[in-house]
Amino acid sequence: MSALLPRAPPFAVATIHQFLRAHALAPGLDGVVVALSGGIDSALVARLARDALGPDHVLGVQMPDAQFPPELLAETEAFGQGLGIEMRTVPIAPVIAAFRELLPELSDRIALGNVAARVRMVALYAIARERHRLVAGTGNKSEILLGYFTKHGDGGVDLLPIGDLYKTEERQIARELGLPERILARPPTAGFWEGQTDESELGFTYDEADRVLFGLEQLRGDEEIARLTAIPLERVRRVLERVERHRHKRRPAPIPKLGLRTIGIDWRD
Fold first, then answer.
1. Would residue 41 show up in a list of annotated catalytic residues for this protein?
2. Predicted confidence (pLDDT) per residue in 6-53, tens digit
3. Which residues contact 4 (CB under 8 A, 6 or more apart)?
């Protein structure tokens, strides 16, 4: 077994519950809105939010595009109903079609996938504002570090309940909480196109990435990580290069320093 293997601490679920209550039930707020896609990330966030806040304070929103499988839509609706939370479906295919007509530049599937993610963000915030709720993001630590999310799309959220859990830790907690096996076994996908999966696009598995990222968290060098994990050095470096290449996604927009205190540099909120 690898010497670098992240494991969720025993207090993880309780801490996330406390975090959700502190943020989503603050004065003037009435809970969270969660985008449900049928995957483990959104399913776990919805379950954690339901347990922490109560079902009356969680709204699950499905936002299918034209290629979203009807059977997955029905399955996800049933999952939300099983949690006892309110569900809403907002089809976004007409909006994406309008963007394609207005912007001929949207000619490749990555660009269209980013549009879909940003349209979903707009819809979530419109609903959240009306309901006096926060948008609970579904990104995990692995995705955030790897930059595997759409800037101002699924990365545009108010809080990230599982943002300090690696994908492997997330799976561990999901199993402990008894999430449906269908969800646990489903290959992670952004749903940008039919047959697309996270791991095929990234070029490595989350199990590999998490061991490398865990080594990076411990300030270990690439060669030491490769030795401890038995992952080829070339693949270790591929993961680390992706972390470095996408650091802009984890930072606020840069501002040139002109004043005494500058936002994002030395202004502390």
1. yes
2. 999 999 999 999 999 999 999 999 999 999 999 999 999 999 999 999
3. 211, 212, 214, 215, 218, 220, 225, 228, 229
Query: Could you confirm whether 143 is annotated as catalytic?
Result: yes
- DSSP track, 175-203: HHTT--HHHHHSPP---SSTT--HHHHHT
Selected residue with higher pLDDT from 4 and 46: 46
The catalytic position among 143, 170, 198, 210 is 143
- Do strands 134-135 and 86-89 pair parallel, antiparallel, or not at all (unpaired)? unpaired
Rounded Cα gap, residues 116 and 98, in angstroms:
12
Mean pLDDT of all residues in 62-86: 96
Task: Give me the domains of the chain, ranges plus CATH numbers.
Answer: 12-191 (3.40.50.620)
Which ranges of 2-140 would DSSP assign to H, the alpha helix?
Answer: 12-24, 40-53, 70-83, 93-102, 109-131
